[in-house]
Amino acid sequence: MAAIGVHLGCTCACVAVYKDGRADVVANDAGDRVTPAIVAYSDHEEVVGLAAKQNRIRNISNTVIKVKQILGRSSEDPQAQKYIAESKCALVEKNGKFRYEIDTGEETKLVRPEDVARLILSKMKETAQSALGSDVNDVVITVPFDFGENQKNALGEAAGAAGFNVLRLIHEPSAALLAYGIGQDSPTGKSNVLVYKLGGASLSITLIEVNSGIYRVLATNTDDSIGGVCFTKALAQYLASEFQRSFKHDVRENPRAMMKLMNSADVAKHSLSTLGSANCFVDSLYGGVDFDCNVSRARFELICSSLFNKCIDVVRKLLDQVGFTSDDINKVVLCGGSTRIPKLQQLIKDLFPTVELLNSIPPDEVIPIGAATEAGILVGKENFSLEEDSLAIECSAKDILVKGIDESGADRFTVLFPSGTPLPARRQHTFQAPGSISSVCLELYESLGKNFAKQENKFAQIVLQDLDKKENGLRDILAVLTMKRDGSLHVTCTDQSTGKCEAITVEVAS
């Protein structure tokens, strides 16, 4: 019985089919194994994939990219605000929900992000069915580790509208491990695996402990400031400077010309992963002038040297966060299309000289293959029931900390829920406050590690007021924090001497 796995990334989507005991990525109607996650709207049709990407120059205001970044997010979300500022397709808020403003010529229509995701997922479904020659509905879809409940619900809604029966949403790092059979082929013993994912729009690093076939996330870090598009932009800027040097025209402030250079740079970047040089040709770049430039791999690596350093620094910070050295890592799994870059692979090998680097599966196909493998396991079970026959353990995506003060009067953060804590979970925290004050405030922070807590990461506080003052000594305050599977956090604070209590609930804390 066939089942499929789908990975919807920020820039690309990919589908793999599980059949006859193995999972394989299948090509779309253009012959490509990866499809751009781009949707273009015109007067009479909706175009998905490569054609939408190629025509973006002419139809940029009606072309939606990176829909995954806005899916299920609220207007208060900083990531949503960043996305809106960068999007060339206008977004408006209606009834608390985002809508893309699409001008079809005759009218302006509002399109939900879920509907954009539905079109991309429908494309994946059609691709799989064309390869199988039959209808298939059962699917496992991957999500980032830091996807919240609202984002998962929005993705599930889009998948249902595309005609899918979603067996499970699994985390991308777990799918990467499944693709290589880690913890499945030799389920005994303990090992530490680093999943390094560099996609088009972000860098995500996850450290997973594999013990007797069970995956436990020790730490995770996502950096949205770097992705494959950053390498493309750096190369496009270099091409613009070469054009200026040759033809004395600066095209950096010309959006249409820069879009052409971005397209050419993107093609060249992919070519340089396998070739020593690539030719960048743009027809009528500016003022009717054609542009032709050859870029060597060495030149590309020099242009992007600071980006490569940033990609490695994130790994070092994550290891420091958990107190690990490179010798504590047993395997490194590469996934995400940008990890094809030879220079990046070499830097990772230099960082982990004695560690097995797993890159035999094309990096942009690892996650969908893992999802399809999981789908095959699920549909292969007799009388399959999601509740009865499977074990899905939700985990906290970030560290949850409380703020206190040490003996010197400096701020001290205590981690109560480390990232990767299986949910639901309950923690107690007792702290002391001067008896001379009548109110006490407990502040809650979220972070990617106790060394990264910042003032702006505070997400909630609870205040005990009107406390009876004590002449001498300290008062003991007991805080009880309960985090549910959906990431919501219930907090109670009790003054131990008087029994006075306050409680709050934070809807999505992690």
Layout: helices, strands, pairs:
Elements: E1 3-8, E2 12-19, E3 22-25, E4 35-36, E5 38-41, E6 46-48, H1 50-54, E7 63-65, H2 78-86, E8 91-94, E9 97-103, E10 108-111, H3 113-132, E11 138-143, H4 149-161, E12 165-171, H5 172-179, E13 190-198, E14 203-211, E15 214-223, H6 228-247, H7 255-271, E16 277-286, E17 289-296, H8 297-303, H9 305-322, E18 331-335, H10 342-351, E19 356-358, H11 366-379, E20 399-405, E21 411-417, E22 425-434, E23 440-447, E24 458-464, E25 474-483, E26 489-495, E27 501-506
Parallel strand pairs: 1-11, 11-12, 13-18, 18-19
Antiparallel strand pairs: 1-2, 2-3, 2-4, 5-6, 5-7, 8-9, 9-10, 13-14, 14-15, 16-17, 20-21, 20-23, 22-25, 23-24, 25-26, 26-27
Helix pairs in contact: 3-4, 5-11, 6-7
Function: Component of the ribosome-associated complex (RAC), a complex involved in folding or maintaining nascent polypeptides in a folding-competent state. In the RAC complex, binds to the nascent polypeptide chain, while DNAJC2 stimulates its ATPase activity.
Keywords: ATP-binding, Chaperone, Cytoplasm, Nucleotide-binding
Organism: Ornithorhynchus anatinus (Duckbill platypus)
